[in-house]
Amino acid sequence: MTSGVVIVGAGHAGSQVAASLRQEGYDGPITLIGAEAEAPYHRPPLSKAFLKTPDAKPQPLRGDDFFAASGVTFLDGAVVQRIDVAAKTVALDDGSHRSYETLVIATGARPRWPAIPGADLEGVLAMRTIADARAIRERLAHVRSVVVIGGGFVGLETASTLLALGRTVTVLEIGPRLLGRAVSPVVSDHVLTRLSAQGADIRFGTAPIAITGDENGVRGVALSNGDTLPADLVLVGIGVEPECDLAAAAGIACDDGILIDHAMRTSAPNILAIGDCTRFHHWHADRPVRLESVQNATDQAKLAARTILGHDEPYRAVPWFWSDIGDMKLQMVGLSFDADAHVTVGAPADNAFSVYHFRAGTLIAIDSVNRPADHMTGRRIIASTFRPSENDAATGRVNELFKAWQAADGLQTRAAS
User: Which of 36, 101, 247, 383 lies most in the core, judged by the most C-beta atoms within 10 Å?
Assistant: First the structure.
């Protein structure tokens, strides 16, 4: 009997590759190993609905009967301590070993932590796992003042939720704007305006130098400018680091993530890697990237399943992301690296607009706020050979022109056949 596929990590990526293998017809054994004592769950709701509802439960990624019905062995609360590449086994923390024919590493990422005094105090938390969300929710009854370190997506989502729950929130961002690595300055300014109107105190160019507290936990945050902010809760949101220690210890090539090729293969035979823990040359950006998104994790998992089944296809999924911050649905498609022109369509004052990013005259990305049609069309445009101009965007005609282009392309295709 074959030892089959072993998947390390039961998040969005790991659970998807198990499902995709069965959907693609794989009939061998599948073992899914998750370090959390939880069935695989959706992470995005943790910073929003889960915090707002005291008795909310995690939203499962799969139905209750998925594992039994699919013949997938799920080991929850199990930590893989070592990969033996030569023996094709993984060692678990209970002393047992699992053999594999193919191993998939989907270990995700861990929150980056500030290297300042007091960062280990009770009440200094991140928002990454269900355990983090529960810990924050359980403390809320005793929390009045919150300091969020970092102006990224998860920190701002949580900040907006806590403001809606009546807490005082201060956001510290060392850079000059919010979401600086992810969206255009127009969107950054808009998010700042909306969060400030909601009551957030947002400070730029300000770094925490220490977190203060006592035996009961955190009490304040000392800043680089000499101020000290009161805080009953400190939320750390300064990015994540790929969980590649397990792979690196096994001799698998890593560099700011587990290095993979176009088909999700690592440098080790019979071992693939997917999701937030990976770094790869992206077809759209034309450079090595590490993408932390549900979309990337899901699409890489689907391709990994096909690789395991003997296909050799390049990863060509269009990158897209989303974030719900208060009454703003942010949707991003494409990667705007090196964009040299930006066209805004719609009205930020109406809380509904899009920013089209061009590089050398080619549309490469769109940031949208409450304009879902622009986002959905943008996903199809970037996957196609349609090339709208900056003027097309400025006149608001991109969606209309793409629809006409699709119709004409369909006519040409039928005529050629």
Answer: 247
